[in-house]
Automatic annotation (TrEMBL):
Keywords: Allosteric enzyme, ATP-binding, Cytoplasm, Glycolysis, Kinase, Magnesium, Metal-binding, Nucleotide-binding, Transferase
Broadest EC class assigned to this enzyme: transferase
UniProt protein name: ATP-dependent 6-phosphofructokinase
EC number: 2.7.1.11
Gene Ontology CC: 6-phosphofructokinase complex
Sequence positions that bind ADP: R28, S29, V30, V31, R32, R162, R219, K221, L222, F223
Catalytic machinery residues: D135 (proton acceptor)
Record entry for activity regulation: Allosterically activated by ADP and other diphosphonucleosides, and allosterically inhibited by phosphoenolpyruvate.
Length: 330
């Protein structure tokens, strides 16, 4: 959506939902781009929760120095049940009015943009979103901030597990994050040379997994790494390992759950780059009168996608990559 009359001079930026490496690079980009355009820019601390409580402070270029390489978010983040209520959103609006804020840059994922869409519909404050989620599950962008770092972190962990798996001739199930999508698992599995990858988008039965293990045994492959997405439909890593143990008592499967380690640490070069590009584009989109849109990257070009599409349309995973991974693992 594009507004006809737009004369924004004061904007605020906030991070919401789960943290993702690269959020600080996006904050830095928003603040410095806004300063370049002679805008007053503010930081909202702790997402919608801080907006309700009025935790809003003026930021300038110096406040975002030396943060591009830092993980997490200097503005902190939180999930807000209060913002789901009309009373909570009214308090948030009152806080913005008290600071004369005329536009918002929201950095987060599906829940963040759902709240932003409702907030604009109720109060008309222009909002542009930046996708910040390691899951990479938002429609309309090839990459979300934090995804590349999460994959790199997972691959580094799997490489270390491979060393001990090889030394002890063991079967390892490694569970990675991703909520109900398999983007992290698929990329981690390919990048680490895993023996099998189990993702929600392609149901893999225990029988199929057993047949795969039998094939590897025939060629005397003495260890195997299985990457499991946390939302995998046939069960989590612990459940699958137990089922394999029941069927093959001679196996001694081990389970590693990488967990929240994937959300921490310094952002990769790619995450710093896309976060900087998205922050820059978000400010200029507000100045051009756009609202209710997410900034995305499609084929290495900046794009704007409506919140409706980003939230409601399904982002397909490339199952040809899964087929390739299966072939390369044989």
């Amino acid at each position: 959506m594009k507004l006809k009359n737009n004369n924004i001079r004061r904007i605020a930026v906030f991070t919401s939902g789960g943290d993702a490496p690269g959020m600080n690079a996006a904050i830095r980009s928003v603040v410095r781009t806004a300063s370049y355009h002679d805008l007053h820019v503010f930081g909202v601390y702790r997402g919608y929760e801080g907006m309700i409580d009025g935790h809003i402070e003026r930021l300038d270029k110096g406040d975002v120095g030396n943060i591009i390489q830092r993980g997490g978010t200097v503005l902190k983040t939180a999930r807000s049940d209060r913002f789901r209520t009309p009373e909570g959103r009214k308090s948030a609006y009152d806080s913005l009015v008290a600071n004369d804020i005329e536009g918002l840059v929201a950095i987060g994922g599906n829940g963040t943009f759902t709240g932003a869409k409702i907030f604009f519909e109720e109060y008309g404050i222009p909002i542009v979103g930046i996708p910040g989620t390691i899951d990479n599950d938002l429609y309309g962008t090839d990459y979300s901030i934090g995804f590349d770092t999460a994959v790199n972190t997972a691959i580094e962990a799997v490489d270390r597990i491979r060393d001990t798996a090889d030394s002890h001739n063991r079967l390892f199930f490694v569970e990675v994050m991703g909520r109900d999508t398999g983007f992290i698992a698929l990329n981690t599995g390919i990048g680490s040379g895993a023996g099998a990858i189990l993702i929600p988008e392609a149901m893999t039965s225990v029988e199929t997994l057993i047949r795969h293990l039998e094939k590897t045994a025939k060629r005397q492959k003495l260890f195997s790494l299985i990457i499991v997405a946390e939302g995998n439909g046939s069960g989590n890593a612990q459940k699958l390992a137990g089922e394999i143990k029941d069927r093959f008592p001679d196996y001694d499967p081990k389970v590693t759950i990488i967990g929240h380690m994937q959300r921490g640490g310094a952002p990769s070069a790619l995450d710093r780059l896309i976060a900087s590009r998205m922050g820059f584009k978000a400010v200029e989109a507000l100045l051009e009168g756009h609202t209710n849109v997410m900034i995305g990257i499609q084929n290495n070009k900046m794009a704007m996608v409506s919140f409706d599409d980003a939230i409601n349309k399904h982002k397909d995973i490339d199952l040809d990559l899964l087929r390739m991974a299966e072939i390369l693992s044989l």
